[in-house]
Design brief:
This protein is mainly beta. It has ten helices and 42 strands. The strands form ten sheets. Strands 1, 5, 6, 7, 10, 11 and 12 form a seven-stranded mixed sheet that branches. Strands 24, 26, 27, 30, 33 and 35 form a six-stranded antiparallel sheet that branches. The longest helix is centred in the first third of the chain and has 16 residues. The protein is globular and about 90 Å long. The termini are far apart.
Length: about 725
């Protein structure tokens, strides 16, 4: 019978690698026009363009990777004892983590060592070779100028039933002709093989034939072919899920037999495990469509110390491993990538990177190492505590006591079995984003003072117990600092992302703070939600916890706008309990801002003495983009009036009932209805619109300078 699987709402886009003659499962075909051009053409909305937004990386890499020395000003671990060794960069800790691996061999029924039923020694060597790539061993024949990733992969020694195992699970598929002939269906277009996974009533997909507990083991599936690909004729050689899929049935790496066995001669397995720990392709977004033709441009993975470039196998031509030609995508690139390698603006900056394509990919960078470590600690922590590697020590007990002023508290831990040392990590952020702040190592201390980075934030605290042979056990605790005094967030500071929570019950285009476009453009600095043409939103953006106090935190304000007047997004604004389980009240339904930022404010006084959150709920279909920015909590009576925010002209209130005010220098203002009828023209700063019917109007403000004239949307209630 089928197991009942409960899925997290995770992107299931897989990452695939191929040889020169094959295509890549993760290449996204993108139009050339950037966001600005697309918005100017919003009457001809380009669904393909919106769909091209890179949502496949569940971790927002840019939030982790900037090695910003100024981050020290936000250090919130107050180490009063000299017995702590304090670190601001996770790389300084030189931690090594062991990942328990099980290799599932889906074979053709032959004896071990024949056909698809590869020998145990082949599996052992493949994992050893994988570690050679990831650890950049100096003794290796493929040693390059990269960094060690501080992560090792080890075949499991204890199975799901607590019995000894080789870490190899052999699955006889000789009776499944679809698998023997066509292998695994990688995409919806592939129908001849067996599915990667499906949830129907029968056991008929790969992960049902072979899968161990994904919380304890990293599953590697060795198969005969993926969508009829092979090492000889090309095609997809392997694919993996990002670390956000950890613990789900969809997690793991799928790789064809020939690419797995020759792991030292091919970087396929090392490349796919890079995806498994949230590394994108270095050339992310380089494949586009121009005039109906696929062309290669400049791609970018968003990691600070990997150069922009087009893939090194573009147009079925391999960039020579020793090429020193100028990289025209990033000719001034000069970042420090490893202890022995600095950018030169040439092909050498990228041709050897493991997350590129090609025949000489053997290196990772500092930034890539940092991201994989974050993925390890934030998403794949259960591997650290798994007993599948054969040694079972206990993780420490962790507790936190908040101080009376609610500005911090004391983190304490108790060890078992006398570890060599403890390592303490602090991450900050919300449900969607987390950023490493700092860490420390100690051999004696068992507690530490913690000052919150700021109010309205979520702090994830981790304590490692470090034993011999790189064995570690980890405990974590999440601490939320409430908003208890005046608060403001313009969402510009990536190091202090608040405790904002996104609940995605609809399509994939949910609330986010940053959207990377394959064209190289970025939407950032404001929460926003993008439309889907076929699936209705059911998405909540939920604020940090507000402790409502009379005259101090009894009001909120924020700015909001629409990207298009033709396709207007609206949201419902709710008061929600602190555990975001129940709606306590409605502040406004169908809140529909204009194209210019409009400031809204709301009274929270009826919730005095309670802990609440604010919920922005989107339920639209096939509209465009809604933005929310400059969120403020304070005294309701002193918060600003509803205004359209503009450098030159301000109109308010908006929506308006009777009197419209215009601030700024102008000659005349004309108000039109949506059919173009002139309703009123005035040079006064106060205009009475009481008699206007409830509707949407266009306000054209004439300043006398054509470049400074502006058109704004007005809502009459």
């Amino acid at each position: 019978m089928k197991y009942l699987i409960i899925f997290l709402l995770l992107p299931l886009t897989a990452i695939a690698q191929s040889l020169l003659s094959g295509g890549c499962g993760n290449d996204i075909i993108n139009p050339e026009n950037n966001l600005q051009i697309a918005l100017l053409k919003d009457l001809k909305k380009n669904n393909v363009f919106i769909k091209s937004i890179n949502t496949s990386n569940n971790i927002e890499a840019e939030k982790y990777l900037s090695n910003n020395n100024e981050i020290k000003q936000y250090s919130s671990l107050d180490f009063n004892s000299e017995k702590f060794d304090f670190y601001n960069d996770i790389l300084d800790l030189n931690q090594n983590y062991v990942i328990p691996v099980v290799v599932h061999i889906l074979h053709d029924g032959g004896n071990i060592g024949t056909g698809l039923n590869i020998k145990e020694q082949n599996v052992v060597e493949s994992i050893e070779n994988l570690n050679t790539y990831w650890n950049n061993s100096e003794s290796s024949p493929i040693h390059g100028e990269g960094v060690s990733m501080n992560i090792k992969f080890k075949l499991a020694e204890i199975d799901e039933n607590g019995q000894p195992t080789s870490g190899i699970n052999r699955v006889d598929m000789s009776s499944n002709q679809a698998y023997l002939d066509h292998g695994i269906n990688y995409s919806a277009e592939s129908v001849d093989g067996i599915d990667d996974y499906n949830s129907d009533a029968e056991i008929n997909s790969m992960r049902e034939f072979a899968s161990w507990n994904p919380e304890k083991y990293y599953n590697i599936y060795v198969v005969n072919t993926i969508s009829d690909s092979s090492c000889n004729r090309g095609g997809i050689q392997g694919y993996a899920r990002y670390s956000g899929a950890h613990g789900s049935i969809s997690d793991g790496t799928v790789i064809i037999n020939c690419a797995f066995v020759d792991a030292l001669g091919k970087s396929t397995l090392a490349h796919e495990l890079g995806h498994a720990f949230s590394l994108p392709h270095t050339f992310n977004g380089d494949l586009r469509v121009e005039d109906g033709i696929q062309v290669y441009g400049c791609g970018d993975d968003g990691i600070d110390d990997t150069a922009k470039h087009k893939r090194s196998t573009a147009n079925a031509t391999q960039v020579p491993c020793n090429s020193t030609e100028i990289n025209f995508c990033d000719p001034t690139f000069d970042k420090i990538m490893s202890p022995t390698k600095t950018g030169t603006g040439t092909d050498q900056d990228i041709v050897r990177n493991t997350m590129n394509y090609g025949s000489c990919t053997t290196e990772f960078t500092f930034g890539q190492q940092r991201l994989t470590n974050h993925a390890m600690l934030l998403n794949r922590t259960s591997y650290i505590n798994s007993d599948a590697t054969g040694i079972n020590f206990q993780r420490p007990d962790v507790s936190f006591i908040e101080n009376e002023s609610k500005t911090g508290g004391i983190l304490s831990w108790s060890n078992y079995n006398n570890p060599i040392s403890n390592t303490i990590y602090l991450f900050s952020g919300g449900d969607t984003y987390n950023s490493f702040i700092n860490g420390a190592n100690t051999t004696n201390e068992t507690s530490v003072n913690l000052d919150y980075i700021d109010q309205g934030m979520r702090h994830t605290l981790m304590v490692n117990a470090n034993y011999e042979n790189d064995l570690k056990k980890t405990s974590e605790i999440t601490v939320t600092s409430k908003i208890v005094r005046e608060y403001f967030d313009d969402f510009e500071d990536n190091s202090k992302v608040g405790d904002w929570i996104v609940l995605n019950g609809g399509d994939s285009g949910s609330w986010r703070l940053r959207t990377n476009l394959a064209s190289g453009d970025t939407i950032e600095g404001a929460w926003h939600i993008l439309y889907d043409a076929t699936t209705t939103h059911d998405d909540y953006l939920i604020s940090p916890i507000i402790e409502v106090k009379n005259g101090l935190t009894d009001g909120i304000s924020f700015n909001a706008k629409n990207e298009s007047m033709t396709y207007m997004e609206d949201i419902d604004l709710y008061v929600i309990d602190e555990n975001y389980e129940n709606i306590l009240g409605t502040l406004q339904e169908n809140l529909t801002p204009p194209e210019e930022y409009l400031n809204y404010k709301f009274d929270l006084s009826e919730y005095e003495g309670r802990n609440i959150r604010i919920g922005f709920h989107s339920t639209t279909l096939d509209q465009y983009i809604f933005y929310m920015d400059d969120f403020k909590v304070g005294n309701y009576n002193t918060l600003s009036l509803n205004k359209i925010i503009n450098d030159e002209i301000i109109i308010y209130p908006n929506p308006v009932n009777s009197i419209l005010k215009i601030d700024g220098t102008f000659k005349t203002a004309k108000i039109y209805d949506l059919k173009g009828k002139l309703m009123i023209e005035s040079s006064e700063s106060i205009i009475d619109v009481t008699q206007f019917p409830q509707s949407i109007y266009i306000v054209k403000v004439i300043t006398g300078e054509e470049s400074a004239d502006m058109t704004l949307k007005l809502i009459k209630e």
